[in-house]
Amino acid sequence: MTPPEAASAPARPPALDRLLEGPALKALVELHGRQPVLAVARDELARWRQAEPPCDFDRLLFEARCQALLQAAATPHLRPVFNLTGTVLHTNLGRALAPPEAVQAVAEAMSRPTNLEYDLEDGQRGDRDDHIEGLLRELTGGEAATAVNNNAAAVLLMLGTLAAGKEVLVSRGELIEIGGAFRIPDIMRRAGARLVEVGTTNRTHLRDFAEAITPRTALVMKVHTSNYAIQGFTAAVPEAELAALCRERGIPFAVDLGSGTLVDMTRWGLPAEPTPAQAIAQGAQLVSFSGDKLLGGPQAGLIVGDKALVARIKRNPLKRALRLDKMTIAALEAVLRLYRDPERLAQRLPTLRLLSRPAEDIRAQAERLAPQVAQALGARATVQVLTCRSQIGSGSLPVERLDSACLALGAPPGQRRAGRFPEQLAAALRALPMPVIGRIEDGLLRLDLRCLDAGSDEKRFVEQLALLQLPG
Ligand SMILES: *Cc1c(COP(=O)(O)O)cnc(C)c1O
Asked: Ligand 1: residues within 6 Å at CB?
């Protein structure tokens, strides 16, 4: 006679080997490999054994969970998103986008041997800076150039090479912090240099610098105040005057430009931003700037200027630690090449193309997409087209805004707890296969369309909205 409990004991799973022979897990092994499938299957069986209260083993459910877990594990962690934040050079979303020429060059450099540090003329060891130095000299008027991992590294290297154990003069109005822990006073300390603050927060005069120079002064540095603007009763020393003073006293003069653009941005209706060529023409002996801000290239820090000073920088062992890899050099060279033809730059360089998109163009795109988005969202959210203002981002041109248009998504009428709706909607959009990142303002989730490429991107954006899952 069977004991009464046995009748109600939960159904047990078949042996693991048997489970693996079923078509569902076989297909998963084919796709992901045997080891990951075994690991997930074992975990899932353990979960079933520990279930409280005990339950019947459900093979379909088990297989579906294995599939979901393996698929999640196979999704790359770093993946593309839609940047509809309205900030074009968004540091958290990877800043500048590479043109196809750069992508192609990176693919080649990664998959084949290259002359990275090899001189093809004499068959001897070469210098990796050679691939970009000529272009940088041509585009900035500097005598020499070198490049490192990012502009923070470039500044660290300039300071560490020229001013270790000595003093560096910087205007009080330029002691900046850039997001992500780049602070001029901290970098200065790390480089072993002593910061001497000159002038006051809002006004610094040439005589302040003249009085601050001592035998211990190794460098005068000007920092482009790229992420804020000092307005009102202000005075900064014109670069040319500061450069003349430094020349007279025999002290190197360096400029950290932050966002370096190599062309006059006003030709595309964008706000003016100082260029390395201007800084050099005004007498700067060294200029540093980022590769992935307005320049529109890969993450890099570029240093151009006086030949003897650049040579000293290149001899610093820190340069070796901060050097560029071949992928970055390949991308940088391709992007710099585009600057030789400024007429076509706005079509060819994605960052500039996005920044110079006319507001009417974005508005027309918003009007075109609004009905499609409304249809995809159904009763889940309301959609309206609003004007908005995009930002350049990455600390470039901080007070300037670009006219743009957005899709503003709101809570459907009669929604309970409508106050939490924008956050819930933002989370649901982030959970899409290609996450959509917007911006919440005045209770609406705003999707600035400046950075949504009309074409394949637009189609993908609309289509995946059908998958949007909102709570309740
Ligand atoms: C952005 C910026 C930096 C840091 O450049 P990264 O390329 O991000 O390292 C340094 N100085 C200024 C003035 C900047 O704007």
From this structure: 150-152, 155, 178, 182, 223-224, 226, 256, 258-259, 290, 301, 395
